[in-house]
Fold this sequence. Notes:
Blueprint lengths: L1 E6 L20 H10 L4 H5 L3 H4 L2 H19 L8 E4 L3 H8 L5 H22 L2 E6 L3 H8 L9 E8 L2 E6 L1 H14 L3 E4 L12 H12 L10 E2 L6 E2 L5 H7 L7 H10 L2 E7 L4 H9 L4 E5 L13
Parallel strand pairs: 1-2, 1-9, 2-7, 9-10
Antiparallel strand pairs: 3-5, 3-6, 4-5, 7-8
Amino acid sequence: MGVAVLFPGQGSQLPRMGEPWRDHPAWEIVERAEAAVGEPLAFLLLEADADQLGRTREAQLAILMASLLAWEAVREVMATPVGAAGHSLGQLTALVATGALSLDDGVRLVVRRAEVTQAAADRTGGGMIALLGATLEQAEEVCRPPSGAERACWVANDNAPGQVVLAGTPAGLEAAAANAARTGAGKVRALGVGGAFHTPLMDTARDAFQPALDATTFATPSCPVVSNVDARPYGESGGWPARLSDHLVRPVRWSESMQALVGLGASSFLEVGPGGVLRGLARRIVPGRQVRNVAVPDDVPSLLEVA
């Protein structure tokens, strides 16, 4: 039995989350990322406010760097994980952390991913809502359109028991919320997201992202990485371009991904990066297992207990 590592996605960003790392040796991660894209990025971790970090490109680059800063600090003090997984954007972080992607390629793919998904969101509109207290089956049902109507809402994230995220057009989300209220399927909470991510409304993003993926070299990861698309672990280099492009139009199967890590032998979990969101989800998906988080350098010493 061992530790599985988890990497957060967009929404976990915090202003100045890089400040505690500024004088840490791991800061070279930021300098390497800047060299990869040829532009300054440190301000995203040190100066950007919540509004700046609310933009897709800025948020995703900031989370990638913050997570890799934490990983750089902890990877030397723990044994090789039994598996890794990342939530949405975090999937690319997991691939960099396990050596399946170089840092340079990972940063460039994050930039391209952010560009194409933002362009698709600008073109199609839409958004996301959380359905709290509902089962996955109930969530699927509230998304179902009336007979003969075009589908406009989908399950986007199966995050944990009682927490499912829906995405779709404004009209589709309004109808789903009304269905949830009518059937008692769960409590609806609006999310501050300007796009219907992980749905067919991202078709153009998938097509635009594919060439960048096809031009990227993937290596064998140091441990299996669980794919969001099918919640299966992959320990080889092949197949990631297809999985990462399909991921843009298909839901994040996070509950199942966590169970897949248990199947690999995970007896405890370590969230690496800001926010602590995945730690909370893990406690609901796999109760009774130890779950920790490393977000700042002061978190690292205690990890020797789970290494």
